[in-house]
Amino acid sequence: MHVFITGGTGTIGSAVVTELLDHGHTVLALARSDASAQTLRNAGAEVLRGDLADLDVLRSGAAQSDGVISLAFGRDYSTPDALARSIAEESAAVAALGQQLLGSDRPIVTVSGTPWVPGRAATEADPVPTDGPVGGRGRSVTALLDLAAQGLRSTAVRMPRTVHDQGQGGFAGLLTDAARRTGVSGYPGDGSQRWPAVHARDAASLFRLVLESAPAGTAWHAVADEGDAVRDIATVIGRRLGLPVEQVPEENFGPFGPIFAADQPASSTHTREALGWQPKHPGLLADLENIQP
Predict the structure, then answer these.
(1) Do 107 and 127 belong to one domain?
(2) Where is the NAD-dependent epimerase/dehydratase domain (predicted)?
(3) Which of 44, 85, 166, 266 is the most buried (most CB within 10 A)?
């Protein structure tokens, strides 16, 4: 399959590109910079120059493909307005890609977060939130899945709060960045809240499986660790960096504060049983031991 991918140099995307190439697919990847283009070529992908906001470029990439994986997302999460702009840009891109493939029965795989459900682990049957800080993303993914009735094999992979590799990435990576910046490995609330997690290479194998075989209109959970306590995450970070571990106000984490403070475990039982997906790389707490002081 010739696959068009956006976000192919990120933590998840670079692993997905490698996974696809290792399993006999070819890859056309969007690149916004010379550095990204060279990284993608070095990995073995073809390159399409452009930005996520270049909808005509996105349509061109989709038109040349047998399937699409949409992973690109803005990098500025510093304020609620910046986060909203990133979500709006992603939503427009996903809509354009879906419309380009409409009626072709070709697959498109997009990404969202696992939902959170009070009192239990979220499952694949739970809807993603369509309100709150990331509600726009939920609305965009839901709209894409609804196109399954119009000749589009639209699917979604729901990612946990931390996608990690060599101790980097995801919300745990943001905690590490904050610890380096402030001199304290901090966590909001009492730290008992749980975050699900997955290794980037395990997530990549699920993206490939969904692209190849998942039915239209379905959502899947890329969850290896159902829920690691945030205090335990902060403890490993503090030990690796030689910093004190302390509770800090959730406001210290900006627009992510309420999300960081929420208990949000997630299950992937259905995904494993239906698609035969089996995570095999280190869990989050073990992988965080790779953080360099």
Answers:
(1) yes
(2) 3-215
(3) 266
Decide if 225 contacts 198 (C-beta within 8 A): yes
Q: Which residues in the chain come in under a pLDDT of 50? A: none
Contact between 16 and 71 (Cβ < 8 Å) = yes
Q: Tokens 């969202």: give the residue.
A: 112
Convert the pLDDT of each residue in 106-149 to its tens digit. 999 999 999 989 999 999 999 998 887 778 888 999 999 999 99
Whole-number pLDDT of residue 81: 78
pLDDT tens readout for residues 24-37: 999 999 999 999 99
220 with 266, same domain: the answer is: no
The one-letter code for the residue type at 12 is I
Tokens linked to 204: 């990549």
CATH number of domain containing 175: 3.90.25.10
Q: Are residues 33 and 53 in the same domain?
A: yes
Residue 187, SS3?
strand
